[in-house]
Write a structure and sequence with these properties.
This protein has 114 residues and is of the alpha+beta class. The chain has 2 domains: 41 residues; 69 residues, Copper binding periplasmic protein CusF (OB fold (Dihydrolipoamide Acetyltransferase, E2P)), CATH 2.40.50.320. The protein contains 1 helix and 5 strands. Strands 1-2-3-5-4 form a 5-stranded mixed β-barrel. Keywords: Signal. This is Cu and Ag efflux protein CusF.
Length: 114
Amino acid sequence: MNTIKNILAVSALAMGIAMPVSSFAQATMDQGKMNMSQASDSMTDGEVKKIDADNGKITLKHGDIKNLDMPGMTMVFTVRDKGQLAKLKPGDKVQFVVVQEGGKMVVTDIQSMR
């Protein structure tokens, strides 16, 4: 009888450990899907006003930046990959992704709409 109680106790403990782990895995997968969809939804329309390739900065007149809850305006952004600036010029219509990193607004992707 003690053996059966021990088996049941071990089984209950194993289920108690396994259940939270499986729900954690599901939550992590769902969050990953959400982050991917947010990235695709976070493209913002803009127009290049000025490029400072040496310092990796771009001035953009942009629409609402939804992922940062920011209204449209004209502002200077730091660009993560300075190489992306080489293919742009003032007046170009673009779509871009911007995130906050270390207190700065950083453009992580920018594409010309030519």
